[in-house]
From TrEMBL:
Its main location: cytoplasm. This is tRNA threonylcarbamoyladenosine biosynthesis protein TsaE. One of its GO terms (biological process) is tRNA threonylcarbamoyladenosine modification. Belongs to the TsaE family. It comes from freshwater metagenome. Signal peptide: none annotated. GO terms for cellular component: cytoplasm. Keywords: ATP-binding, Cytoplasm, Magnesium, Metal-binding, Nucleotide-binding, tRNA processing.
């Protein structure tokens, strides 16, 4: 697990960009945290770092469920499970299948369906009681996909790591 502190939305964008720099096709990234925690903010920084164009812009996918961005270095599928009520509905979105075709997945509220979504990185954002611009961000991994990249990831995130 890697524990980070972000002190602004811009810093969350930069942290997301550092992670995006190490992703590969078929990676799943679950975004975890309450409403307003910064999941969509993370997604915005992540997409930009993958090279997604401004006119292919990242917004909250709450109403369309999956937004696909194909203008970056790897196709990105950004989903929000907030409105879904069953694991079957999540499975029907077919996100894993999209990743199998060589894309990266970014799923808001992904923790509720990790058994359907499979292994990957999880990024948990938590607000801070004292400062409304601070977020505590925890990066964790399920499975082995990051085994050979974990040290690089730690290095890339060193500036924001809590110790
Ligand atoms: N350090 C920070 N990191 C991320 N967002 C921050 C930070 N500080 C303040 N904010 C603000 O918090 C809000 C985060 O909103 P965002 O839509 O990203 O949350 P969300 O987790 O996607 O919520 P929802 O579950 O409603 O989709 C934004 O208004 C952003 O400007
Ligand atoms: Mg959101």
């Amino acid at each position: 697990m890697i524990d980070l502190r972000s002190s602004s939305v811009e810093e969350t964008h930069t942290i997301a960009a550092a992670i995006a720099g190490l992703v590969r096709p078929r990676d799943m990234v679950l975004l975890v945290g309450e409403m307003g925690a910064g999941k969509t903010a993370f997604a915005t920084g992540f997409a930009k770092a993958l090279g997604v164009h401004g006119d292919d812009h990242v917004s909250s996918p709450t109403f369309t469920l999956v937004h696909s961005h194909t203008s970056g270095r790897i196709p990105l599928h950004h989903a929000d499970l907030y409105r879904l009520t069953s694991l079957a509905e999540v499975a029907d979105l077919g996100i894993r299948e999209l990743l199998d075709m060589g894309a990266v997945g970014l799923v808001e509220w992904g923790d509720v369906a990790s058994e359907v979504l499979g292994d990957g990185l999880s990024v948990t954002l938590e607000a801070d009681d004292e400062d409304e611009d601070v977020r505590l961000i925890t990066v964790a991994v399920d499975g082995h996909a990051w085994d050979t990249r974990w040290e690089m990831l730690k290095n890339a995130l060193r500036s924001w790591t809590l110790r």
